[in-house]
Amino acid sequence: MAGGKREVLSLYKALLRESRKFSGYNYREYAMRRIKDGFREGKSLVGEEQQRQLQRARESLEIVKRQVVIGSLYGHPDLVIEK
């Protein structure tokens, strides 16, 4: 099964792990919130719609990975909330 629970959980954890690497607090929190909300909404999906959403999540993982690298190239001061 292409959209098995193990694959979904693995993808969910990978997205959260990568989003924690964002250096900016706002980007990091936004990404984590969107990931959690997206997987919560997709919990009841089945069949072809589930496969589309899983493919979209895989693509999002690649985007997050790229953005983390790009974000790490540019330094910025920590926010007060991060200290």
Give the helix/strand layout:
Layout: H1 5-19, H2 25-41, H3 47-72
**Strand coverage percent:** under 5%
Radius of gyration: 14 Å
Give a count of the beta strands, DSSP E runs of length 2 or more. Answer: 0
Order of helices and strands: HHH
What would your notes on this structure say?
The protein has 83 residues and is mainly α. The protein contains 3 helices and no strands. The chain has helices spanning 5-19, 25-41, 47-72. α1 (5-19) runs antiparallel to α2 and α1 (5-19) packs parallel to α3 (47-72). It is elongated. The chain starts with a helix and ends in an 11-residue tail after the last helix. The mean pLDDT is 88.
Short recap of the structure:
With 83 residues, the chain is mainly alpha-helical. The chain has helices spanning 5-19, 25-41, 47-72.
